[in-house]
Amino acid sequence: MPISSPPLRSWAEIDMQALRQNLAYARSLNPSCSLMGVVKANAYGHGIKRIAKAFSEEKVEFLGVANCGEARRIAETGIKTEIYVLGPTFPDERPEIVKNNWRASISNIQEANHFNELAQAAENKLAVHLTLDTGMGRGGFLPEDAAAGAAHIESLSHLTLEGAGSHLPSADEDRDFTLRQMKQFEDIISHLPTLKYVHLSNSAGITDYHAGSCNLMRPGLILYGASPLPEYQDKLSAVMSLMSRVSLIRTLPAGHGISYGRQTILKKDTRVATIGIGYGDGYPRSLSNQGAEVYIRGRRFPVLGRVTMDQIMVDISDDDSISTGDSVELFGKNILVTEVAEKAGTIAWEIFTGITPRVTRVET
């Protein structure tokens, strides 16, 4: 007899309707702006091909990636949406960018010259964007060099200066700095040639600020249902729900230790559920003994002891109805990823992108 597929041990439910709702919300914040859907890092762990297809169907103008490998995965689907390579590129990445007419962001004169040489050899004219460093410190022309950089790119025979952009490093943490940065950006743009696209705002920038001259926004996190600013969270719907199952239930006696290091010693007889997920799946070990909870049958239950590679233990003493095989939400619609990130001492971006390949993504 053929062996049927075993049930999933851990999986991530990807709610595509929630994704579209979040995209509609982002667009509503500035309806006149074009939009770049940021899909780098496997679309924040959600699956780059499925997310790129959805954004393409929703007529998003650009898809933002970190490297050529990500761009290639999108191109393999046949999607025609423009692909924008965020950040500086390695010299050996550039021929592929030129060949495929992917948008390049230019951080210095040498990069521009090399792209121009490659485009000339390919008898192509490549659209590029000028990257401005207004405080991120990661790449781009400094403010005092921006005008000269733009003029140089315009002088090159096989490049077209299509746009310019910068990045907000502290929009969710330092409002005063961000306002000064935006003012400086506006001043730089006013001294550049007329551009088709001007872009600055990430998720925090879109929700809490207004970038006057910008006509392209670059949301990432909010598209996936998490807000970097808590006051806007209720406008969003979780796209990913990290799920597992109860694999074992036992009643352990008072004085029994739980997990490695025996940092948790039971003070009373306790009904303990073992859940089939751990840091090998991307559920952070740093959640150990930090008050993390899971969601089972409509209620929250506390995680006990250290998170192990493949399993966690949960105190279910308050609910006799839970049984083996029951589904468990680690984060999603009932426990926000931002809550999990805070207890783990990290950020939602890292939680999403840390979900490992052995967690099957399932569209819902």
What does this structure look like?
- This protein is α/β, with parallel strands linked by helices.
- The protein folds into two domains: 16-226, Alpha-Beta Barrel (TIM Barrel), CATH 3.20.20; 240-363, Lyase, Ornithine Decarboxylase, Chain A, domain 1, CATH 2.40.37.10.
- It is 28% helix and 24% strand.
- Helix 5 links the parallel strand 4 (82-85) and strand 5.
- The longest helix is centred in the middle third of the chain and has 16 residues, at 175-190.
- It is elongated and about 75 Å long.
User: Main sheet, how many strands, which sense, barrel?
Assistant: 8 strands, mixed
Tell me the number of strands. 18
Beta-strand portion reads 15-25%
Mean pLDDT score, rounded?
96
Number of helices: 11
For this structure, what is the CATH homologous superfamily of the largest domain?
A: Alanine racemase
Q: Which CATH-level-2 architecture of the largest domain?
A: Alpha-Beta Barrel
Gross geometry = elongated
Q: CATH topology of the largest domain, anyone?
A: TIM Barrel
Query: What is the H-and-E element order?
Result: EHEHHEHEHEHEHEHEHEEEEEEEEEHHE
Share in helix: 25-40%
Task: Tell me the structural class.
Answer: alpha/beta
What is the CA–CA distance across the termini? Answer: 30 Å
- The whole-angstrom Rg is 24 Å
Low-confidence stretches: none
CATH class of the largest domain: Alpha Beta
Number of domains: 2
